[in-house]
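fwd from M.: "can u put these together and see what the complex looks like"

so here's what she sent:
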Amino acid sequence: MTWYAFFGALEQGFAYGLMVLGVYLTFRVLDFPDLTVDGSLPLGAAVSAVAITAGVHPYLSLILALGAGFLAGMVTGILNTKFKILHLLASILTMIALYSINIRIMGRPNMTLLGKNTILDPFYAMGLSPSEAAPILFGIVSLLAVIFLIWFLHTAFGLALLATGDNKQMITSQGVNTHRVIIFGVGLSNGLVALSGAMICQNQGAADVNMGVGTIVAGLASVIIGETVFGSRSISRAIIAALLGSIMYRLAIALALGLKLGRFSFTPSDLNLITAILVVAALTLPQVRARFRLK
Amino acid sequence: MKKLTVFLVILSLFCVAPVVFAGDKYTVSVNQIVEHPALDAVRKGFQDMLKEKGYDVTYNVHIAQGNISTANLIAKQILGEKPDLVLAIATPTAQACAQVIKKTPILITAVTDPVGAGLVASLEKPGANITGMTDMSPVDRQVELIQEFIPGIKKLGIIYNSGEANSVSILEVLKKESAARGIEVEEATVTNSSGVTQAAKSLVGRVQAIYIPTDNTVVSVFEAITKVSIENKLPLFAADVDSVSRGAIAALAIDYYQMGRQSGLMAERIFKGAGTSDMPVESLLDLKLYVNPANAKDMGVKVPESVTKRADEIIK
């Protein structure tokens, strides 16, 4: 792996890290399997791209994207709590609806940002190259998100969120309105996902309606890699592990891209297979090590 | 005599040396969005052309397996490979490369609308390190071909993926070209391949023929439309030649292999030092006409003699 590829993986790991934090929030904290993310990631990208093209400041466009994602998540939450639709189906419905909505927002399936202002411009102005600026900025943003989430989950409302996922009956008997907690929690999760989509589209130079395909798969993989490798004993540890899991997942892809074993060469179509094998290796390594230590 | 031999050896070294050491050795990194017969054909054509021209090229081929985030990682990977030229096949990969690679020349190919995708400033003067070839379908001539088969056609159906930027660009042109010829376009959209049969059925009774553009999602399940077309005697036309053996009556189309070869010629010019910023984006003038009379019979139309005569290939 070259340095460019390594920093590229870091950058992608951080940028998608926000999405992974969002998935962690629904999947682990709320115990709410949420597929909305496949739609809210491109939603954030679409909103940000349209806003920037209309002359809105790139940083302001991030906030608009966050808001849009929050609304999308709220829709899923409302469908689930108020309309009594099973969480999985509620999120699928929002996800498929977002496909059409995203094309409506952009007016076409793909919107270019090449040559437009982006959140990275201030860093370029400081003399940083694109391969340095992106990991730094995305690293800062995802660290801020990690700090925010750790703080948030220790507030009274955050604890209610944790309790709703753990034991709904108990928290209801404490007088907490779980509907409100779920709607807010899924909203916050999708806000983070949309923010991630907005940053990704500015970094890759285009928003595309298909860029969300497979988001939930990458999100779940990252969360689980993170907690297997780095543990989840406390909330703070689990949140940091989710972000690290995202980086490990992207590093596995980068490693698979650059892999050459002597004269045996993989065909380009083996990429997903190699990525899967590398992830399996990363997941089983701690177990193997533990077993040797026991002996 | 000895002196002469030494002299000759030295002389021959001088003659051979430039050939050996100039040794046209290049590295080309490829970023391709997905494995697909048309896109693979482009790559093969490109490689064949450079090989025929005697270039010794090492290829780093990367395929994003349909995943845009992987296409971005590949762009970074290519930055580290420091190739002499980047070949970006299809729109999303071209955009990913354009954002990351600012110095190395990028040759884009199989991109329908390079200006709309923000890749080049204009087709005549790209303006930066990017140039290449567009695969915009010759929609005007395709509509004329359909009219040759069905002279009084008033309503033409199209099935496409509303999420594919290329298809949406083609639709715009199709509407314009059809309107100019008094034909109304009926659209049926899909978001993935599993919706194609349903989309085809929705057109039955509303149109006199179906046109399938170069849409990756729809073309991947072409047989599903063939089935609906035969059952309902609804003539089916394609915009790529491969689909003619999968059920289309005829296709007047870009030959993607030829497109790759022409891209190879552009690469040669870049190797020889031509700048990309004022090398115009090219398109393929040479089109291929494929006809399948058996399909025509199944769908209730006759192949006009004028078409049979000029067809490049008649599929049996």
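replying to her w this: The longest helix of chain B spans residues 2-22.
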